[in-house]
Write a structure and sequence with these properties.
alpha+beta; OB fold (Dihydrolipoamide Acetyltransferase, E2P); 33% strand; elongated
Length: 345
């Protein structure tokens, strides 16, 4: 397969910098997600790797070889787009084998590879169907199969699941995981869906406004955001001011014993995820509050609690909590994330 390295990648459109000194290493056999909102520049990076656009500066290395000036068809990188882009006049088998025929492969080799890929992508039995006879999920699987059959060094996935409904999207997530596990193909996956990135990827790279903001294992980004903006992106809802005094983090609605972050006496920001706040039994509480409103969300209920003028959002499996009810909340100290002064603004 292949190792992909992006060094100080900079991409401009009409003299405007879209990607700024982006650095990333995707190890051989690794699946890395580039996550970010629409317009962050995620697809732009994929296109640069695929050779569809030329970066203004920086290097793209595949297995140690620079791809600068290498045409797309010779990069051993294959891109699967958001829309399947299948040939409507061809059946499934013909679509999958198209790239191999363009490479001049023999019919025996083409048929052998297609047979394996049909099984891998769960398309066996559909090989003679035309595109219009396929569901959206089946079409996307054909698009994925057409890329995999070429045995590229790296697979580039550009939000391939965004046009599918929720159930199909979940099925395709599992399928992509299974394919990556079985083939060990190096994969760069672009998505704006954080749950998708966290579920599928070995590592996640968060891209905001063309800049890499944080990279790491999914749990690291979710539970240990480096700043407030990253925390908000991953669903943070509770942000509060405070400061350390004698090892205690003091806020307007409570005091918490936390590790000092070298901000003693300085104003700081802190956050805690809604699912980490506990509704405590009688006599075991840190904060008193009153429920302002509730929202049932299936497996959990989201509640908004007024704690002396400060509203905290809590996600609980207690479906009996009602608006106007007095509750006692406990904020576990190991779940509170305090940001140093330079990231608190």
């Amino acid at each position: 397969m292949g190792e992909l390295i992006l060094k100080n990648l900079t991409i401009t459109y009409n003299r405007r910098s879209v990607i700024q000194e982006f650095n990333l290493r995707v190890a051989d056999g690794e699946l890395v997600a580039i996550l970010g909102p629409s317009g962050a520049g995620k697809t732009t990076i994929l296109k640069a790797v695929a050779g569809l656009i030329e970066p203004a500066a920086g290097e793209i290395l595949l297995d140690g070889r620079s791809l600068r000036g290498v045409p797309p068809e010779k990069r051993a990188a294959v891109m699967v787009f958001q829309n399947p882009l299948l040939f409507p006049f061809m059946n499934v088998k013909q679509n999958i084998g198209f790239g191999l025929r363009m490479q001049g492969c023999t019919e025996v080799k083409i048929n052998n590879r297609i047979e394996k890929i049909l099984d891998l992508t769960q398309l066996t039995g559909l090989e003679h169907r035309k595109v219009h006879e396929l569901s959206g999920g089946q079409q996307q699987r054909v698009s994925l199969a057409r890329a995999l059959v070429l045995e590229p060094a790296i697979l580039l996935l550009d939000e391939p699941l965004s046009n599918l409904d929720a159930n199909l999207r979940q099925q395709m997530r599992v399928l992509i995981q299974e394919i990556q596990d079985k083939t060990g193909i190096t994969t760069l996956f672009v998505t704006h869906d954080q749950s998708e990135a966290l579920m599928i990827a070995h590592r996640v790279t968060l891209l905001l406004d063309g800049q890499l903001r944080q990279a790491g294992r999914p749990r690291e980004l979710f539970y240990k955001p480096v700043d407030l903006e990253v925390a908000r992106f991953f669903g943070g809802a509770n942000f509060f001011d405070g400061h350390f005094r004698e090892g205690i983090f003091q806020t307007d609605f409570g005091a918490f014993q936390l590790p000092d972050v070298n901000g003693n006496g300085h104003p700081l920001k802190a956050t805690i995820r809604p699912e980490d706040i506990l509704i405590s039994p009688e006599g075991d509480y840190e904060i008193k509050g009153r429920v302002k409103k509730t929202s049932f969300e299936g497996i959990a209920t989201r509640i908004w609690v007024d704690c002396g003028g400060k509203t905290l959002v809590v996600l609980t499996q207690d479906t009996e909590v009602k608006s106007g009810q007095d509750v006692r909340l406990r904020l576990p100290s190991d779940k509170i994330r305090v940001f140093p002064p330079d990231t608190a603004d």
